[in-house]
Design brief:
The complex is a heterodimer of chains A (721) and B (155). In chain A, a hairpin with a 2-residue loop joins strand 14 and strand 15. With 721 residues, chain A is an alpha+beta fold. In chain A, 31% of the residues lie in helices and 23% in strands. In chain A, the strands form eight sheets. A seven-stranded mixed beta sheet of chain A has the order 9-10-7-17-14-15-16. Chain A has a five-stranded mixed beta sheet with strand order 12-22-19-18-13, sandwiched between helices. A four-stranded mixed beta sheet of chain A has the order 23-24-25-28, with helices on both faces. Chain A is built from 21 helices and 28 strands. Chain B is an alpha+beta fold and 155 residues long. Chain B has a five-stranded mixed beta sheet, with helices on one face. In chain B, strand 3 and strand 4 form a beta hairpin. In chain B, helix 3 crosses helix 6 and helix 4 crosses helix 5. The longest helix of chain B is centred in the C-terminal third of the chain and has 18 residues. Classes of the chains: A alpha+beta (721), B alpha+beta (155). At the A-B interface, helix 7 and helix 20 of A face helix 1, helix 3, helix 4, helix 5 and helix 6 of B.
């Protein structure tokens, strides 16, 4: 595999799986694009791979149990929940469990997607069967080792908290481990009945806390290697811009600067430390050809999108004669919504350490996409992907930014190391991060609906306008079907309300622009959740009905959305009077296999919206660690509230107008509501929790603001008139 | 230039204008203190200088040479400081990147206000951004650390 496109070649099935992963977990969602579904049907489901327990579980003589984590820990808590799954079956002493990121190797590929990656809120369900099986196999191998040593039948042995026991005889896992690892893994193991689980489902504290409260946790930016230089790249001020000429004399005169090299993305300054690299970069004299990108202006872009939304786009979903119903007499509701470009802004600025060898390359970075990075680095160097070793460090947040089909920050780091012939750590400043692209696309949605005499919608037209994330990537040929990128319309084309609306149409325009776009926590749901749940609220008010009752009437009693909504309403006390000056709004949205309802309680002081409380109910199927679910819901709400109250990236003359946290504001502790999380008791298929907490918060807050002020805010961030 | 970092005197080759953050991370090798914004907006780089919390990313080396600098590493590797214990007990961290700064701000707050209310916590911690949104557990953990501090007489 010499370039990312080759990723798609080994097999059609592998490609399909990969693109689905990158699309943000479409496979687990109820919705799967027709093209994908057909392709899967032709090829059949991927065959389950044999589990190699030695790849995942290492038992030390000291009785420590190290679980090798094939997914990356970026805050979402899998450093704890996945080892819980192993330990449940292994029957080891939980206090002896250690965790390490797995190396980059085919054994650690995502079971559904065929490549090593973390995304789409899939890690726990992806690992669940495989890691339980690995734990059970390891337990059997330990037990058989003891039985052989004691010359007794394995059936007369049992295990307990890290020991194999038979009558009065007892051997620790550590004593048995070396011999056990040499045994052939059992062909078949019986997994524990869920009623016997003692760890899975139990609130369990994180295993990475100690490292993270002492400063010992090693993130990519903390990597130390002999002779390592810090590199910073001066990139074009406008997307698509090119260097026409540069003078490095002043940069090279900065004490600590070692070298200046040109790479495809700009000019790199290499220095002994960050401060010298930054000062060196500031001292560069560069002339740029900004190209066509310099015309970009988001005010104009929004106007273009609004005009486009008045025309028919590619059809994502349709039923009945929408135009005929909308043309008939009766109550009509029209509305236009928009959301801006957003930067991911993880706390740890992007970085990547590269050390080149003879026909080999070693990388240390926080990445969600090891297999892609290997292929992309290999392509730069002209070596085989297997010669690229990726060491996954703790990720200081990612939210999708560290899973890029172009592997942009890895490729750039490899290019710098190659050009300079030196080991380097590429570091982005915060300004590089906010202005450097790969944003959540800007979106505009236009709705028209007709209401029947009972107030229920009889027609629903939803036109979306926004850049495709998939277009231009190697995944486009398969992921974009009939002009519709499935990630653009997820949560809109499969809205649960459509089944109750006889005539409906969801169509999509996918204009292009020089702005690089990417999945941002919850991907398409980050805008569709807002617009669909706000517009349904508009319809409820137009019908003079209670927003909860209106939704209940549209959702069948068996609906998981409805169940979550009703639990949230009950826990919140929906309909009960609130403190003076406050109002509540609700929303429900399914994403990544989990159904989440939220009710937000807000007030407004001096034009400033304040969210006091959010009551949330989630149905994510069986729960491994309730503490993780709670944390991820709080996290999704906080991340979502940054976009509700503050977040926007805008362009003027092709340049990003924001640069750092003073003008790309994010939620702070004094704006954090009290979040209550209620988990629906559910035996449905396991869903994700990293992203699904986000989509409902924007509409819940906007609906509450409407209830309080009568102002229907249809743009994010929410700004009162 | 001479620096007193976590009770240890060190001679480091810093220029006067080099921010303390990079002195710590790139010269002293103490990477527990984090770079988040470089403009005193996010608090990830919070350390104490003569007991006062400071944003090390905008504090020039010359301004702190000879002063008592304490970083997250000074709280000890075993996590036994009341604030660290509270953080572990209440499962605060997620990605963990901002937590050195959060903890250093919380330690500073508890020194001046051993029993803070929610408003005190919000006011003292509003300079520390957490993109994972651990704020609710941060609040709870500061309260818990206050209790633990009283028990051990060491907040």
């Amino acid at each position: 595999m010499r370039n990312p496109e080759d990723l798609v070649k080994p097999s059609r099935r592998r490609f399909l799986a990969t693109s689905a992963a990158l699309a943000g977990g479409l496979v687990i969602a109820c919705f799967m694009p027709v093209g994908l579904r057909r392709a899967f049907a032709q090829e059949g489901a991927p065959a389950p791979k044999p589990v190699d327990p030695n790849a995942f579980v290492r038992i030390g003589r000291d009785n420590s149990v190290t679980v090798l984590l094939k997914h990356a820990e970026m805050g979402q808590g899998i450093w704890t929940s996945i080892p819980m799954v192993v330990a449940e079956e292994l029957g080891c002493d939980w206090s002896m469990v250690r965790v390490a990121h797995a190396p980059s190797a085919p054994a650690y590929a995502h079971n559904t997607f065929g490549m090593q990656m973390t995304g789409g809120s899939t890690s726990t369900w992806d690992s669940f069967e495989q890691l339980r099986t690995a734990g059970a196999m390891a337990r059997t191998m330990l037990l058989e080792t003891a039985a052989e040593e004691w010359k007794i039948d394995p059936s007369s042995c049992r295990t307990d908290n890290g020991f194999v026991i038979a009558g009065a005889r007892k051997a620790s896992y550590g004593e048995l481990a070396e011999a056990a690892a040499k045994r052939k893994a059992p062909a078949k193991v019986t997994l524990k009945d869920p009623s016997k689980w003692t760890l899975i489902g139990k609130p369990t504290r994180r295993l990475d806390s100690l490292a993270k409260v002492t400063g010992a946790a090693e993130f990519g930016i903390d990597v130390k290697r002999p002779g390592l230089l810090t590199a910073m790249v001066a990139r074009a001020p406008v997307f698509g811009g090119k260097v026409t000429r540069f003078d490095a004399a002043k940069a090279k005169a900065v004490p600590g600067v070692i070298d200046v090299v040109q790479v495809p993305s700009g000019i790199a300054v290499l220095a002994n430390h960050y401060w010298a690299a930054k000062n060196g970069r500031d001292a560069l004299d560069i002339s740029w050809d900004n190209g066509a990108g310099k015309a970009l202006d988001t005010v104009a872009l929004r106007r273009d999108y609004a005009a486009l939304a008045k025309t028919r786009g590619a059809i994502a979903k349709t039923a009945g004669d929408v135009d005929a119903v909308l043309g008939a007499s009766g109550t009509k509701v029209d509305a236009e919504y928009d959301v801006p470009f957003l930067a991911h802004a993880p706390m740890e600025p992007l970085n990547c350490t590269v050390v080149l060898g003879d026909s080999s390359c070693e990388i240390w970075t926080g990445t969600q996409f090891q297999t892609g990075d290997q292929a992309a680095a290999a392509a730069v160097l002209g070596i085989a992907p297997g010669k690229v070793k990726v060491n996954t460090m703790f990720l200081g947040g990612a939210f999708g930014r560290r899973a890029n089909p172009t592997s942009d920050f890895v490729v750039e780091a490899v290019q710098v190391a190659k050009a300079a012939g030196k080991p380097i750590k590429l570091v982005w400043s915060r300004e590089d991060d906010i202005g450097g692209g790969y944003y959540r696309p800007m979106w505009l949605s236009r709705f028209s609906a007709a209401l029947g005499k009972d107030g229920k919608p009889t027609a629903w037209s939803h036109t979306l306008v926004g850049q495709s994330i998939i277009a231009g990537t190697p995944f486009a040929p398969m992921m974009i079907k009939d002009g519709v990128d499935a990630t653009s319309v997820e949560g809109a084309a499969n809205s649960p309300y459509l089944a109750a609306i006889p005539a409906h149409r969801v169509d999509l325009h996918s204009p292009t622009s020089p702005v690089p776009v990417l999945w941002w926590r919850s991907v398409g749901h980050s805008h569709t959740g807002f617009v669909v749940e706000s517009f349904i609220d508009e319809l409820a008010h137009a019908a003079r009905q209670d927003p909860l009752a209106y939704r209940q009437a549209l959702l069948p009693t068996t609906s998981r959305d409805r169940r979550a909504l009703e639990l949230a309403a009950q826990k919140f006390g929906w309909g009960k009077p609130l403190e003076k000056g406050r109002a509540a709004g609700l929303a429900v949205h399914e994403s990544f296999g989990s159904h989440v309802a939220q009710i937000a309680e807000v007030s407004v002081t001096d034009g400033r919206i304040r969210v006091h409380r959010v009551v949330c109910a989630i149905d994510c199927g069986p729960v491994v660690n309730p503490l993780t679910v709670e944390a991820q819901i709080q996290s999704g709400i906080a991340y979502g509230l940054s976009a509700v109250l503050h977040g926007q990236v805008t362009f003027k003359d092709g340049k990003v107008q924001q640069s750092n946290f003073h003008d790309y504001k994010v939620l702070r502790i004094d704006e954090m509501p009290v979040v209550e999380v209620h988990i629906v008791d559910s035996t449905e298929k396991m869903g994700g929790v990293g992203e699904p907490g986000l989509p409902p918060i924007a509409p819940a807050v906007a609906n509450a603001v409407f209830a309080l002020t009568g102002q229907r805010l249809r743009s994010l961030p929410l700004v009162l008139a | 230039m001479k620096f007193d970092i976590n009770g240890r005197e060190q001679e480091l080759e810093a220029t006067d204008d080099m921010p303390l953050l990079w002195v710590l991370r790139d010269l002293a090798g103490l990477t527990g203190t984090k770079f988040g914004c470089g403009v005193a907006q996010c608090g990830a780089c919070t350390v104490h200088v003569d007991g006062q919390p400071l944003r090390s990313c905008v504090t020039p080396a010359a301004a702190v040479a000879g002063k008592k600098i304490t970083t997250i590493e000074s709280l000890g590797p075993d996590g036994s400081h009341p604030v660290q214990r509270a953080w572990i007990e209440l499962d605060v961290v997620q990605c963990g990147y901002c937590q050195s700064g959060q903890i250093m701000s919380a330690v500073a707050l508890l020194k001046v206000k051993p029993d803070p209310n929610d408003a005190d916590i919000d006011a003292a911690m509003a300079g520390n951004i957490c993109r994972c949104g651990t704020y609710q557990r941060v609040r709870a953990a500061v309260h818990r650390a206050a209790e633990l501090g009283k028990e051990s007489g060491n907040a």
